[in-house]
Design goal:
Lyase, Ornithine Decarboxylase, Chain A, domain 1; about 425 residues; TIM Barrel; alpha/beta; about 30% helix; 2 domains; binds ligand LLP
């Protein structure tokens, strides 16, 4: 199977050199497992695809935020894309150079903006005229000058799930193309803000190269207009959204996305920033889960696992596909991560969690080998938007995370406890009756 660092050896799944069964036995399930090598080689692949631009790579924390993984990425030259005070704190704690941090987000609070200015973040991505005014006010108040980019809304469809489309005109993100010049004109009157960048992010994952190319073409066109107006634009932040291999649909190779934009961007002679998340982290992680029960209701076979929408919300939220397969596959070692596997005895299976919601599923009608209580399953490509979107719904503590490098393994987040669940409510006085 071509998963790189997650491979079946003698019919049993390994993460690098460590058997997945050993990880589950040592750390319990559900368990997020990351491969160091996969993370770093995904970063390297991105860097080499976009090499002609030598972009600043600001890894998007919203996809994967574990401090240990962030330190690893910072150590390999990554800056970070953050969207909240909490993410900013994580990035700084991971040792990021503040100048390599971009702070994006449609609704930053004054408190968050102050924290970003105090830290000296490299770029604040402004999403409205209102936000520009607030930023200028806070920068003036704190005696700083904010380096900013304006997020434009290019009205380009990313052709992804409606819930992850951000760049069409009716979306809340960015500034309508018709208002961009007005915002720059206002910024010119505000010495506390140095607005010299443009930012675009049309959604994720972007499945068609043409959408990416169109969005960048819009950025370059508006840059020309602004330059003609006399403004200097020296930074273009291309956002994130580059796809990862989830196994349901093949996506165009990364190089095609890069080739589509590198030429015109190089010609423009600007500094480029990328905000990748999933393309680096998704395939660097998987989720291990134990089968609790197998049952039949009506015509359906349900495999109830100890992982749920708590650990992986994407199927419930976006009907997202994640390949799932037994850790002990024996002779049935999958040849790809698609649902099309060649064995005739596979059973259409609903893989569901213990949460009291019908939408709590990891897969529906998925052809899987017959399973029984105690079997261990791997849910692939869960390195991005899995742990970061985890919740404690139904008062279920969040799962542990472990990092593997060769034969070594290290727990990088302990499993939460029942005490963790109530800690923020304890020791507060009872309300008078
Ligand atoms: N930059 C901005 C401004 C973003 O909004 C996002 C993602 C990224 C970068 C990183 O995108 P990536 O390279 O990871 O695709 N939770 C969803 C996706 C929503 C992403 C929101 N913004 C998921 O599970 O697929």
């Amino acid at each position: 199977m071509t998963t790189g660092c997650f491979e079946y050896q003698d019919g049993a799944l390994h993460c690098e050199q460590v058997p997945a069964e050993e990880l589950a036995a040592g750390h319990g399930t559900p368990l997020y497992v990351y491969s160091r090598q996969a993370l770093l080689s995904n970063l390297e692949a991105l860097r080499s695809a976009f090499a002609p631009l030598d972009p600043r790579i600001c890894f998007s924390l919203k996809s994967c935020q574990n401090l240990h993984l962030l330190r690893l990425l910072a150590g390999h030259g990554c800056g970070f894309d953050v969207v909240s005070g909490g993410e900013l704190q994580r990035a700084l704690e991971a040792g990021a150079d503040p100048r390599q941090i971009v702070f994006a987000g449609v609704g930053k609070t004054d408190h968050e903006i102050r924290a970003a200015l105090a830290a000296g973040v490299g770029l604040l991505n402004v999403e409205s005229l209102s936000e520009l005014e607030v930023l200028a006010g806070l920068a003036r108040e704190t005696g700083t000058q904010a380096h900013a980019a304006l997020r434009i809304n290019p009205d380009v469809d990313a052709h992804t799930h409606a819930y992850t489309t951000t760049g069409t005109r009716e979306n809340k993100f960015g500034v309508d193309m018709h208002h961009v010049r007005q915002v720059f004109a206002r910024a010119a009157e505000l010495p506390a803000v140095c607005l010299r960048g443009l930012h675009v992010h049309i959604g994720s994952p972007i499945t068609q190269v043409a959408s990416f190319r169109d969005a960048i073409a819009q950025v370059l066109a508006i840059r020309d207009t602004l330059q003609r107006d006399g403004f200097t634009i020296d930074t273009l932040d291309l956002g994130g959204g580059l796809p990862a291999q989830y196994g349901d649909h093949p996506h165009p190779p990364l190089q095609e996305f890069a080739d589509a934009v590198c030429g015109p961007l190089r010609e423009a002679g600007v500094e480029t920033v990328l905000e990748p998340g999933r393309v680096i982290a998704a395939t660097a992680g998987l989720l291990l889960t134990r089968v609790l029960h197998v049952k039949r209701n009506g015509s359906r076979v349900f495999v109830v696992t100890d992982a749920s929408m708590n650990e992986l919300l994407r199927p419930a939220l976006y009907q997202a596909y994640h390949f799932i397969w037994p850790v002990r596959a024996g002779k049935r070692v999958p040849q790809s991560q698609s649902a099309d596997q060649p064995w005739p005895d596979l059973v259409p299976t609903d893989v569901v969690g213990p949460i009291c919601e019908t939408t709590d599923f990891l897969a529906r009608g998925r052809p899987l080998p017959p399973l029984e209580r105690g079997d261990l399953l791997a849910v692939f490509a869960t390195g991005a938007y899995s742990m970061t979107m985890a919740s404690q719904y139904n008062s279920r503590p969040r799962a542990a995370e472990v990092l593997v490098a060769g034969r070594r393994q290290q727990r990088i987040r302990r499993r939460e406890t029942y005490d963790d669940l109530v800690a923020a409510e304890r020791d507060l006085p009872e309300m008078e009756p």
